[in-house]
Amino acid sequence: MKLFRLAAVLVVLAGPTYAQMPQLNLLQDGPSKTPEEKAAEAEREKAYKETLKKIPDTKASNDPWGGMRADPPKQPAAPKASAATSAPKKTKSGTAAN
Asked: CA-CA distance, 20 to 40, in Å (whole number)?
């Protein structure tokens, strides 16, 4: 209970302290761009996007160790339904209670 009271007092005292901290803007606003700079940037962006369109899509795996790994284990064939139903059912015999 004492710990709860101590925590409550700290929260009450920390609120006004936090509110008094100055709001600093460390990232100053830079000078705005001229229309020529904006046009040049738009042209660079357009050229960049066109260059990206020229890059072919890679369909093949890019795994250098792909040939070194063994094939995944094959799943055993599922038993046929007719063979499973034709076998006689085995029942437990004995006097042991479950």
From this structure: 45
- The per-residue b/e assignment along 52-84, b for 16 or more CB within 10 angstroms, e otherwise, is eeeeeeeeeeeeeeeeeeeeeeeeeeeeeeeee
List, run by run, the mean pLDDT of 10-residue segments along the chain (98 residues): 81 71 77 92 97 84 73 68 58 65
Q: What is the largest CA-CA distance in the chain?
A: 98
Torsion angle, CA of 48/49/51/54, rounded to 10 degrees?
A: 170
> In this structure, what are the phi and psi dihedrals at residue 97, rounded to the nearest 5 degrees?
-85, 145
Cβ atoms of residues 51 and 43 within 8 Å: no
Instruction: Report the run of H or E that residue 39 belongs to, with start and end.
Output: helix 35-54
Tokens read off for 89:
């059912």
What is the C-alpha to C-alpha distance for residues 55 and 76, in angstroms, rounded to an integer? Answer: 43
How much is the pTM? 0.33
